[in-house]
Structure formats: C-alpha cells, structure tokens
Design a protein that fits this description.
alpha/beta, seven-stranded mixed beta sheet, three-stranded antiparallel beta sheet, 16 helices, 10 strands, about 40% helix, globular
Length: about 475
Amino acid sequence: MALFGLTDGISRTIEGAGATLSETFLEDTLRLGVTGLSRAGKTVFITALVANLLQRGRMPQLKAQAEGRIDAVYLQPQPDVTLPRFDYEGHLAALTGDTPRWPASTRAISELRLSFRVRPSGLFASWKSPRVLHLDIVDYPGEWLLDLGLLDQTYDQWSEATLARLAKRAEAADFIAFARAEDGALRLEEDKLRALSDSFTAYLTAARDLGRVDVTPGRFLLPGDLAGSPVLTFAPLPKPAHTPRASLWREMERRFEAYKSRVVRPFFRDHFARIDRQIVLMDVLGAIHQGPRAVEDLRRTMAEVLGSFRPGRNGWLTSLFGGKRVERILFAATKADHLHHEQHPALTAITTALLAEAKSRADFSGARTEALSLASLRATVEEMVTRDGETLPAVRGTLLSTGKPAVMYPGLLPTDPARLLSPAREGAEGWLDADYNLMTFAPARLTLKPGEGPPHIRLDRAIEFLIGDRL
C-alpha cells in the first residue's frame, strides 16, 4: 500500500507538471487585474466586458474580431479553486432584467476565466492551427490597492501623514479631537484603544460615503472574517516624546506592522504580484463635481499607488519563475455616458493630465500606459437642449433616486486640463468660474439583438489595448 501511494503520488506530480508545462508552452495565459477607487464601477465593467466578449457585435475596435480571427470565446472554470468566482451571471441578470439595477459593489477578491480560440494571422496562417488564450480576470477592491502603499511606511510616518490630511476634513473632526487629546506614552488600556479604532473606522466610513478616494486601511471597511481582531484595531496617533513598553502608542505600532505583514503582504504575494495587465477605473467626473480638493486627492492617490504595480516588461523566463511585472496599464475615466460625446476628448485629456506623474513613472519602467474615457454600460442617450437661447450638448436618462426621466447638462469641461489641475494643486475651495453638476442614472432597460452585448462606450478600445497583442 505504501509503495502504491508513493508511485501514485509521483504519477500525480508528473501529471501536474505536464499540465503546467502544457499551459505554459501550448496555451497562453494572461492575468488581467481590474480595480479602481470607490464608485468607479468595477463590477459593471467586468460584467459588461465579459458579455461583450461572448457576444461581440458591439466590439469593432477589437482587431482580432474585426479581422474575423476569433472562432469562439467561452467561460471556463477558474484555475484558482481557493478564490470565489466572479458572479457574472448574477450581475448580468441585475443589469438586463425587466427592472434593471446596478449590481452590488466589489467586497472581496474574485476571479473569472474567459478563453479565446483564435486563428493566427500572417503569411503562414493557413498552416497553423487555432490557438487558445486564457484570460483570467481578477477583481479586487480598490481599497486593497491603496493598502499596498502602506508597505513602505512606518507607523510613525503613516500616522503623521494621515493626521495632517484629516485635519482639513470636516468628517474627521471627531476623530482628530479624540486622537489629539490622547497621550500615547500612557499605559495601554484596551477599551481606549478600541474606542480610538472605532472612531477612526467611523471616519473612514463617512469618507467613503462622501466619495473620498484615499480611504485606507481598506480592510477596516471590508473586514470579512477579520472583523474585531486586533489586526484591524488601531488608529493613527501623534508620536509622544517617549514610547515606553506596553504604552498605547507602541501597541498601535505593533498592530499596524501586523496589518502589513498578515493582511497586505499576503495579498501582494498571492494575487497582486502575479498580474500581467491592469486597468484602473476612476470616477474623474465625480471628483470634478466634488471640487478642487477631491481632484487633488485623486491625483495624489494615483501617483502614490502606481509604484505597487511594479511596471515593466515580462520576459518568458521571469514569467516562468514568477518574477512578473505589469506590462500594460490602462487608466480609464468611467461614466463617459454622463457627457455628450463632444466632451469626451476633454475628459480623456483631463484624465491624462491628472495621471501625468503616475504615467511617467510607468512609462519610464518600460510598461505601456494609456488613458481613455469609457462607459461600461451606456445608461443615457444624447440630446441637444436650449438654455437662455444657447444650444447645449446634454444627455437624458432615468434618475436612480426617483425613477423619472431627466436631462442633464453637467457643465462644459475645459479643453485645457490646467484650468482644473492648477486650482486643485493650490488648494482652492471651489471652482472659480465654472459649476459642474452630476446626476446619478439607473441602467436603461435593454433590448439586445442576437450577437450583441450591452451598449457601451469604448470597451472595445480598452480591451484591444489590454490584450489585443496576445490575440
């Protein structure tokens, strides 16, 4: 029995190695990370993308589709059986039902495998067999992305930066008063530590509800099975002159370091570091609507986190042995359907300028980057309206709050992005000579023709940039 068990184990190991070699050398595999900050629409993006890749009638900018080389696209069981499967069918049903609704936002990491059977192109294409590309789509909350920036910070550095930033925010006033009143040199009292942590978590919740993009540590808002554990029970504190053992400040420091080692690093090692291509979704219009400070928060946040992508070029040896680096990064401003198409170039230009610092870092490291504006699922139709004798480009949709139709003219975005970025950098309280308004629209009821996915804006351009070279 022991000999049989040994030989069976060896044969299974050989089979596993053969499967690995087959996938490595015969079938191409690409891991696409999808993330974004609060309210950017990650779940809708993945659902609409998969639907439009399965039914490609609305994907003319996907080159392999335009050339007729995609024989089939199909869903397969995901390779990582320890991860939840992205609930594509449930989310699609929410978007396309008789009473369509936006699906719930991303709460944890999930995965989905989409496989392409593609005929080769080129001079000797007729001599070659179709090949398979497996696209593993990895969905993870944007708050977890922000946590990667903690890895290079000490508790002292994080506390100082966080307290300075929060001092300017009304929703943080209660926590700031609480934290400033505490003496971190005093002996640890667990109930006081927990009260500070609860107050800090209340601030993070309020900031997220206001649309703030820099809400971190992210697991405070998405605790899962870590809820109530010491690793999620800390807060920033001013550093006292002395930090004796068993003091409040030293215990906060210990738990902050535990959060990095037990929560952040495993996510980086097991999931994030294996990504080949990445799309980062941003609600740029929402930030503009909130004002200059929100725009500057978005610019600073994206510049800080880009280093976590480890951008660069993959070689086949580094891919084989796990030393992957992100090769392509797409920064996408979502909700382009909230603007008439005449304003889309301005939104793309603002997004490009907003990310100039982050983009230059990635380009310098060898990664290809691009910015564009898109709408994963088009919820409006365009229309021209007359106001005070002037004809304005607007959009019409169904209001999410009331279910009634409404026409929206959000304001005219400047063609020069500096008109927005300069006052944002300077800390202006509001826009000097402009007023930008936004409404929240419900998804429109759809009637799809055979072979068509849901209507969108530039999903095909987005996926062509991200994976077109591998098709």
